[in-house]
Amino acid sequence: MLSSIRLRCSASYGLRSYHLTNMRAFDELRKLEIFFMEETRRGCSVIELYELVQHAGNILPRLYLLCTAGSVYIKTKEAPAKEILKDLVEMCRGIQHPLRGLFLRSYLAQISRDKLPDIGSEYEGDADTVTDAVEFVLLNFTEMNKLWVRMQHQGPARDKERREKERGELRDLVGKNLHVLSQLEGVDLDMYRDTVLPRVLEQIVNCRDEIAQYYLIDCIIQVFPDEYHLQTLDVLLGACPQLQPSVDIMTVLSRLMERLSNYAALNAEVLPYFLQVEAFSKLNNAIGKVIEAQEDMPILSAVTLYSSLLKFTLHVHPDRLDYADQVLGSCVKQLSGKGKINDTRATREIVSLLSAPLEKYNDVVIALKLTNYPLVVEYLDNETKRIMATVIIRSIMKNNTLITTAEKVEALLELIKGLINDLDEPQGLEVDEDDFEEEQNSVARLVHMLYNDDTEEMFKIISILKKHFLTGGPKRLKFTIPPLVVSTLKLIRRLPVEGDNPFGKEASVTATKIFQFLNQIIEALPNVPSPDLAFRLYLQCAEAANKCDEEPIAYEFFTQAYILYEEEISDSKAQVTALQLIIGTLQRMHVFGVENRDTLTHKATGYSAKLLKKPDQCRAVYACSHLFWLEDHETIQDGDRVLLCLKRALKIANSAQQMGSNGQGSAGSVTLFIEILNKYLYFYEKGIPQITVESVESLIQLIKNEESMPSDPYAESLFASTLQFMEFQKQKGGAIGDRYEEIKV
């Protein structure tokens, strides 16, 4: 057995082969331990056995045998466990070869783990028994770490990468000692603070090895209880600036803060302790010292540290906005002098930093209270500012957050100016059109989340929006102006009627003032160019002025709409649509006097007659008939002009029929005649004396004559439906039924 162990332990293998050989050797040694234990039960002296194995020829097999015999010695309790363990850990100094020494001490840690003189252990001794156990583990840990670090400096420089890989595979052998310490019942907070942590940190700092320092600091954070970390923050954080500059301290501290955050989240009763030990101040100071000690620390690492600290603060001290603002202020100080941050990973981390308050509070209003928040945004490049602005808007929309004061709106628009202002864009920058439209639509939706019940404050809000939107560049106006106009029109509807307003014309916010404001906004649109949009908005404003009984203002808006129609809208289809809007809006207007209304209706009928296509002319002209008869307004009931429009429509339909008869038939004009018939029936039903039975009958006869021409399924269906409607009205009886009875079909 001894020769087999000697062969396996003294052979020179690669790391993987050596590791497998030792695992097999450990299995054999466990069997040997059982054999030794049986021999002691048969009367063999364990003391003699312990001395006998020390006569083995080679030192490495000798020490493995000594550890095995020592394990049996402890089990027999013929000597205090602390004495045997002290002897074994000292004897293992005889192996200074890094790889062999690591595995030897790993075996020692393995066999002694359940034999430490801990509290409650069967091997517990006097009052200082725990101290002896801790001393043994710490001594073994120190020696193992020295051997592990020594591996880095053996062999040629060209093998450095291979050595670092091997060290990474062996690190758990060293870290297991810290795990053993964390499992000892006797290692309470006092012992951890006074003995364990200082000794371990001393070894970590003094080894001056990047790999060892990073791994072992991380081990401390992971294996010991969160309560211990909270109570010893100053000691643990005090070691961080003393680590090698190349150590990834960013990840280490981030994990520490993450653990403490989770600890606070799971145990609300411990939150007062965080304030008691001043955890935030200690972490903030430690981060500052680490950054100061590592002058060449990348900006990514610094920002990541502050991002982790902010998330810790938001979880542990959500009510302390001053803490969060202090973190952002420290981040601004670190970014100062760096200019715009172009590192993609760094900017992504800054976005994460700025998103943390939004995700925590679900209220952008709270983020607006952080004075350093916009200062951090300023260090982002234009592209990342747009991303951050989108994040802010999404948060507002998701949580239905209302921004209710002009001051907060101003601060918000400064934060999202990456989406509403393009004055600083570099020349030649190409932006994806779909992305641009999506961004601007999000800004448009945002406008409706800026609201205050007080009309004066609301007017201040829309004035601020106007200031920012009008400097946003022409491409953005067609997206941002319409929601601003709609929001302003909503404000007008909330204004008290002049008679109910105690301030009357002296009020700071009046309908006249708001309409002037609207006119200034819409005037910017024809230059975009978006004349069709401006045209629609002018008509909406005119209708709003109508409801406020502001005739001069309504007339001015209609005038502006007419100017745009004449000068900017040239496409025939667009003209048809625009004219339909004019007629529909003008029909609902009741504020105009006779002179103004005549002027506007005359213009509308004139536009109708100038459309390019005859069918469009016909339909526009018979639609104008509704401008001269409003059932609820006796002052707007002119049967003669209604009849004139309908006759003019018939004339245009006849003209269309003549143009279409040249080899094409007159099916299209038949449809026009049927549509005009429906208008005749509408006004006949309203009792307009100028619309007589004879005129209706003659039109019906004309349509029947035209049906002998080439068939049109749509026209036939429309005419059949019209006749069916007339029959239905007859059957209803009453005054309307009597009128329809007079019509002979």
TrEMBL record:
Keyword Acetylation found: no
Membrane topology: Peripheral membrane protein
Compartment(s): Membrane
One Pfam family here: Vps35
Record keywords, A-Z: Membrane, Protein transport, Transport
InterPro entries in alphabetical order: Vps35, Vps35_C
Stretch forming the signal peptide: none
Family under the similarity heading: Belongs to the VPS35 family.
Function: Plays a role in vesicular protein sorting.
Protein known as: Vacuolar protein sorting-associated protein 35
Organism listed in the record: Camelina sativa (False flax)
Gene name of the record: LOC104747611
